[in-house]
Amino acid sequence: MKLNISLKKLSYILFISLLLGFTHNFISPKGIPLVKEEIILGSFTDDDLNNVGANGLDYSKIKAIDLENAFKLFKNGVKFVDVRDQWDFADGHVSGAVNLPEVEFNTKHEALSKLSKDEPLILYCSSDDCGLSTKVAIELMKLGYQYLYVFEEGWEIWLESDYPVEVGGEL
């Protein structure tokens, strides 16, 4: 059976489909943004080793941190939060890290009970091309967590640097 659809009808169907899709996306509370929101993180300074703080929802208060400073804070007992999925976490993670997968994030996630809103937290994911740690940091800030750092270089560079790691964990 041969379909006989004119180009005009096909264009009309495509236009209506796009219009309905964009309309649904626009009115949906969980719609996908059409333009990626650029989030600018603050810069980590030596003052942050002793004075950590953030108030409000100013995203620049979430600080980007490099490997050297992340390790300094690790040695000072600052808690790491791994936002990768539970299987990646079980394959290996920063020693002592708490697993709070971005894909499972919600305000009642059991991992949140292991985190204090008043303690500094370093969030990380796989590598510098992974934006999940920034997403979770923003959600934590909305919940009132104050001292948030994003280790943008992530798990891969930590592992390559032969810093303390653990294997296993909750699945």
Tell me the Rg in angstroms. Answer: 21 Å
| Main sheet attributes: strand count, strand direction, barrel closure | 6 strands, parallel
- Count up the helices: 5
The CATH superfamily turns out to be Rhodanese-like domain
Q: Give the structural class.
A: alpha/beta
Would you mind describing this structure in some detail?
The chain has helices at about 5-25, 65-75, 85-90, 130-140, 155-160, and strands at about 40-45, 65, 80, 95, 100, 120-125, 150, 165. By secondary structure, it is an alpha/beta fold. The protein has a single domain (about 40-165), classed as Oxidized Rhodanese, domain 1, CATH 3.40.250. The chain is elongated.
Q: Can you lay out the helices and strands and say which pair or pack?
A:
Layout: H1 7-27, E1 42-43, E2 63-65, H2 67-75, E3 79-82, H3 86-91, E4 93-94, E5 98-99, E6 121-124, H4 132-142, E7 148-151, H5 154-160, E8 165-166
Parallel strand pairs: 1-2, 2-7, 3-5, 3-6, 6-7
Antiparallel strand pairs: 4-8
Short description:
With 171 residues, the chain is of the alpha/beta class. It is built from five helices and eight strands. It is elongated.
Task: Provide the descriptors you would attach to this structure in a database record.
8 strands, six-stranded parallel beta sheet, 171 residues, 32% helix, two-stranded antiparallel sheet, alpha/beta, Oxidized Rhodanese, domain 1, single chain, 13% strand
